[in-house]
Structures are given as C-alpha cells and as structure tokens.
C-alpha cells in the first residue's frame, strides 16, 4: 500500500509543478514560433485589406535579394565585430586588476560591474546626453582641459554613430566577461606563476604563456554570450541613435537586424516579410546558440 | 628601496588603475545624477561645466511628478500622470513576475534535481532551448495571440510573458540549487515517511531560501529593465512601465535635459540600489553558473 501511494503522490507532484510551466512555454513561445513560421510564407500586410495568401518562400527570396537586408546584416556584424574585441580587452584588463590583492577590492568590484545591471534604454540615454553636441559633459570636460578647441557633435557622422553604439554596448556589457575572466583567473594555481618567476619569466611573458592559454575556456564562454548580446542589440541603440520615440522614421545609419525587424513588423506592418526575417535571424544565430544551450543543458541535467 | 617601498609602489599603481576603471564605470551615472539636481543655467553653461551644482535642487523631480503641462501636442498623457503610472506599472510587473516565477521554478527545480520521471530530460531541454532562441520568432505571432486573448496593453499580459521568458533562467538556477542541498537530509525525511509535498514544503523550502531570493531578485531586475516586451505589448498608461515612459519623455521634452535626467534617475534607481546591496545574489543568477 505504502509504495503505491507514494508513487501516486510523486506523479501528482510532477503534474502540478510542471503543467503550468509546460503550458506557458507551449502557449507563449513554441506555438507563436510555429505560427510565425507559417506567416513567413504568406504576404500578410496589415496596411492592405486583403486575406493573406500563401506565397511559398517568396519573402525569404525577396529579403535575400534586397540591398537593405544585406546592409543591415553587415551592420549587425560590424557592431559585433567592433564590440567583442573592445569588450574583451576592457574586461581582461579589469579582471587582471581585480585579481590583485589590495584593500578595498570588494568595493571596487561592486562598483565596477554596476552599469551591467541598469536598464539598456537608460544606458543609451546616459551616453546620448554625455555626447550631446551642445551641452554634453564630454565636450565640457575635453574643452576645460584644453583637449578640444570647440564643441564636437560626436554622434553626427554615420561611422561615428556605429562606433559609439559599440562603445556604449561595451559599457553596458563588459561586466559579464569581467566576472567570467576573473573567476577563470582565480582558478589558476599560484605555484604556476611562482615557478615561472623562478625560471626568469617576466610579467608580460607570464600573462602571455600562462594566463591567456589557461583562460581560453573562459574567453570562449564570454565570447559566445556576448556575441548573442551584441547581435541582438536593441535597447541601447533605441535611445542612443535610433531617434524614433514617437513613431517617426528610424535612423538608417544604426539600424541593426533587431531594429529592422521591429520596423518591418510594427511600423511598416509587413507581417509576412518580418516573420521571414525573424527566421533568417534565427538561422544566423543558431550555430552560436546551440553551443550555449548544450553547455547549460549538460550542466543542468547530466551532472548529478 | 626595500620590500615596503616596492609594496607601496604596487599599491599606488593598482589604485591609479582602479581610479581609471571607476571613472569609466561611474562617470555617465554620476553625470546624469548631477544633471537631475542642477539648475538649467548651470547645466547649459558653456563652455565651462560645473561638475557639482552650486545650488543643488530637486525641482526637476518635482516637475516630472507634478506638472502636466510640458507634453507634446498630439494627445499624449500629461507628464505627471505618465510618471506615476509608469512607476506603479513597473513595480507591479516586476514584483508579480518575480514572485510567480520563483514559485514555479522552485517546484520544478526540485522535480528536475531530485526526481526521475518520463519526459524529464525532454521537458528540461524544451525550457532551456528558449535561451538562445531569438525572441522575435515568437514575438511576432505572440502579438496577435495577445490581441485575440485581449491581453494587449494589460498588466496581466505583461506578467504572463515575463514569467514565461524568465522560466529558463529561474528553473536552471533552482535545479542547480536544490541539487546542492545534501541528499542525506532528504533521505532522512523520506524514511520518516514524508510524502513529496511535505518533503518539499518542510525540508526543501527552508534550505532553498537563498536560491529563491536570488531567483526573485534576478527576475525582478530583468523585468524592471526590460524595454522590448512593453514596447510591443503596451499602448497606454494602463500598462506602460518606466522604461517606456522614459523614451516617451525623450520625444516629449525636446531640450529639458534636467527633467529627462530626473526621469532617467528614477528609472534606474531600483536596479542601481539592488546592484549595490544584492550583487552577490544577482551575479550568481545572471552568469548562469558560468561562475560557481
């Protein structure tokens, strides 16, 4: 009697705790994902009053033949390409610093990773104000110290807009790779460095031949996560350079894939085309995503 | 120069580096805080900037919360109403999403960590696969689904979406947390004849409390900071949180940087305080176990 009733209470427990989760995920994630896939083969456009028609893969073909699509895609990879090296360099520097022993290290660490925890739209706003051409603090600072002779419009040229997007993205996210690299550094045994010192390796050689090789796995995780974050950049661009809070046109010079997708669906109301774009983006980030999920999955389920 | 001198030099170099890092990390935050308590004359002074206001004032905060005049023509809600409704909506969705997802994830975390059942790995993978999924794939059709369910522009709709989106992170955190609770404690309870419910309620819950606090805080922070979801699923001050209100202000106040700064400070204050006081909890959750 006893084992039977226990089995029963176990099944009941599993159903009660997992049913709401499975239901939510099925209804709000996987069903819409399939629905979007279905819509990507229609010409649904909310501006035009007509029942949507099946048009096969036309949307995909249209996007792949569209110059704007390639421009936006290239820009997204440019943002990733500018952000990742900058971010890794900043993170590695700060991690090396925080790995030193000194009084006050805890406080410095706490303050150094603050920007990561603030809302992305606020970060974009902060920097937009800092870089403001007329009253911005950067101009004020550089002018006061005689580094510029007149105020600059930092966000005027299209190329500098992209550069600042990468810098602000770096500012928003560098804390994550810093923490990962710091944890990696702290797991390197001290005697490795001591014996290298005895062998006469200077500080630079020790970083080059001990620290960096041993940190490669940490760099790997950080790069994967930060690739996804930079590739899907949205909030920061919105308030820094998108220049479109009240339904106006979107700044074309910093339009990355996610902003383009938002524009297609929610501004232009070309639902079918936008749906196709979302699946092209999915395919582009799939490779990196699979690596990430396998790692998390292995840790969560298989190590028991 | 002896050892003491060398050590002193090392510390000096370190503290100079720390200063550089802290300026990089905090200067933009400092500047928006200063802007929000400056008078416009000082803030717009050119070419010389005043790095701390000579007459600090809270007038901008008073303006954004009490005056309704400075809105753009075209039917926008008055500033004061937007600010207080935004604050209310942000608090409600953050706390509700955090509480609900903590509850769901704790129950599920125990099941994944300690029980063997059919479909266990499949369901876990189904949850974790959401992590790398570019959210747009779901959002487009979800928008029409929410419209049909009449959940568009409602707090309930936002909470349901946030809870769902937070599930992978929360379930993962609680699964690993429960697994770290010593098995022997549970075995002892099983021998005493406790069923699953009693075991979870009286043994696991008290021991899992730090994990639950971490999940709650991370969920609250992520919800508070989110912009994309409310951008798509809200329309009016019935449900627009502060992140949306802030972007409306950027359009509304064409040049009132001191007022916009005050709005930005209000928007980032809760995450800022959480990052100062609960950082240990947040880091564990936000790095998803990449750091033990």
Keywords for this entry:
heterodimer; A: mainly alpha; MetI-like fold; globular; B: mainly alpha; 14 helices; 73% helix
Summarize the helix and strand pattern of chain A as letters. Answer: HHHHHHHHHHHHH
Most extensive interface between two protein chains, with residue counts: A-B, 103 and 107 residues
CATH class of the largest domain in chain B: Mainly Alpha
**CATH topology assignment of the largest domain in chain B:** MetI-like fold
Radius of gyration of chain A: 25 Å
Task: Give the total of beta strands of chain B.
Answer: 0
Spans of at least 5 consecutive residues with low confidence of chain B: 69-75
- Distance between the first and last residues' Cα of chain A: 30 Å
Give a description of the structure.
- The complex is a heterodimer of chains A (304) and B (292).
- Chain A is mainly alpha-helical and 304 residues long.
- Chain A has one domain (58-302): MetI-like fold.
- Helices cover 73% and strands 0% of the residues of chain A.
- Chain A has 13 helices and no strands.
- In chain A, α3 (67-98) packs across α8 (175-186), α7 (158-173) packs antiparallel against α11 (235-242) and α8 runs antiparallel to α10 (203-231).
- The longest helix of chain A is centred in the N-terminal third of the chain and has 38 residues, at 2-39.
- The radius of gyration of chain A is 25 Å and the shape is globular.
- The relative contact order of chain A is 0.13.
- The model of chain A has no long low-confidence stretch (mean pLDDT 88).
- Chain B is mainly alpha-helical and 292 residues long.
- Chain B has two domains: 3-57; 67-286, MetI-like (MetI-like fold, Orthogonal Bundle).
- In chain B, α1 packs across α13, α3 packs across α4 (79-114) and α10 (209-225) crosses α14.
- Residues 69-75 of chain B have low confidence and may be disordered.
- Chains A and B meet through α1, α3, α4, α5 and α6 of A and α1, α4, α5, α6 and α7 of B.
């Amino acid at each position: 009697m006893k084992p039977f009733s226990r089995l029963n209470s176990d099944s009941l427990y599993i159903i009660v705790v997992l049913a709401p989760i499975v239901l939510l995920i099925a209804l709000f994630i996987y069903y819409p994902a399939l629905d979007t896939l279905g819509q990507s083969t229609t010409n649904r456009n909310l501006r035009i009053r007509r029942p949507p028609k099946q048009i096969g893969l036309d949307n995909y073909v249209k996007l792949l033949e569209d110059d704007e699509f390639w421009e936006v895609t290239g820009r997204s990879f440019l943002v990733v390409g500018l952000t990742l090296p900058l971010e890794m360099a900043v993170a590695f520097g700060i991690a090396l610093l925080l790995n030193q022993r000194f009084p006050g290290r805890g406080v410095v660490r706490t303050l150094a990773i603050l920007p990561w925890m603030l809302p992305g739209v606020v970060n974009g706003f902060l920097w937009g104000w800092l870089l403001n051409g007329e009253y911005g603090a950067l101009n004020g600072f550089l002018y006061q110290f005689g580094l510029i002779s007149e105020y600059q419009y930092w966000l005027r040229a299209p190329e500098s807009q992209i550069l600042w997007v990468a810098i602000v993205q770096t500012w928003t996210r560098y804390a994550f790779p810093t923490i990962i690299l710091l944890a990696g550094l702290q797991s390197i045994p001290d005697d490795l460095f001591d014996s290298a010192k005895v062998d006469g390796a200077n500080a630079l050689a020790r970083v080059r031949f001990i620290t960096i090789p041993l940190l490669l796995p940490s760099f790997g995780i950080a790069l994967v996560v930060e690739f996804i974050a930079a590739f899907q950049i949205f909030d920061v661009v919105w308030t820094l350079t998108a220049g479109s809070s009240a339904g106006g046109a979107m700044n074309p010079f910093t339009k990355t894939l996610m902003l383009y997708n938002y524009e297609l669906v929610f501004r232009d109301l070309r639902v079918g085309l936008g749906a196709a774009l979302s699946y092209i983006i999915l395919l582009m980030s799939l490779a990196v995503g699979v690596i990430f999920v396998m790692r998390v999955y292995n840790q969560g389920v298989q190590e028991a | 120069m002896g050892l003491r001198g060398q050590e002193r030099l090392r510390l000096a170099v370190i503290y100079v580096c720390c200063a550089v890092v802290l300026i990089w990390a905090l200067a933009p935050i400092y500047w928006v805080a200063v802007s929000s308590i400056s008078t416009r004359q000082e803030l717009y002074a050119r070419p010389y900037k005043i790095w701390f206001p000579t007459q600090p004032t809270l007038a901008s905060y008073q303006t954004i919360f009490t005056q309704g005049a400075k809105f753009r023509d075209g039917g926008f809600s008055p500033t004061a109403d937007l600010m207080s409704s935004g604050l209310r909506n942000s608090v409600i969705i953050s706390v509700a999403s955090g509480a609900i997802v903590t509850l769901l994830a704790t129950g599920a975390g125990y099941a994944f960590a300690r029980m063997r059942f059919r479909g266990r790995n499949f369901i876990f993978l189904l949850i974790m696969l959401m992590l790398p999924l570019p959210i747009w794939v779901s959002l487009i059709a979800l928008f029409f689904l929410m419209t049909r369910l009449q959940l568009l522009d409602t707090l309930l709709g936002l909470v349901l979406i946030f809870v769902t989106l937070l599930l992978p992170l929360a379930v993962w955190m609680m699964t690993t947390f429960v697994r770290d609770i010593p098995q022997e404690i549970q075995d002892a309870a099983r021998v005493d004849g406790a069923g699953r419910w009693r075991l979870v309620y009286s043994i696991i819950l008290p021991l899992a409390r730090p994990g639950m606090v971490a999940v709650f805080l991370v969920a609250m922070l992520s919800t508070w900071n989110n912009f994309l979801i409310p951008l798509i699923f809200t329309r009016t001050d019935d449900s627009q949180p502060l992140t949306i209100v802030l972007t409306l202000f950027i359009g509304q106040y064409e040049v009132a940087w001191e007022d916009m700064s005050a709005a930005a400070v209000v928007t980032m204050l809760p995450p800022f305080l959480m990052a100062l006081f609960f950082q240990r909890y947040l880091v564990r959750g936000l790095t998803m176990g990449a750091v033990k």
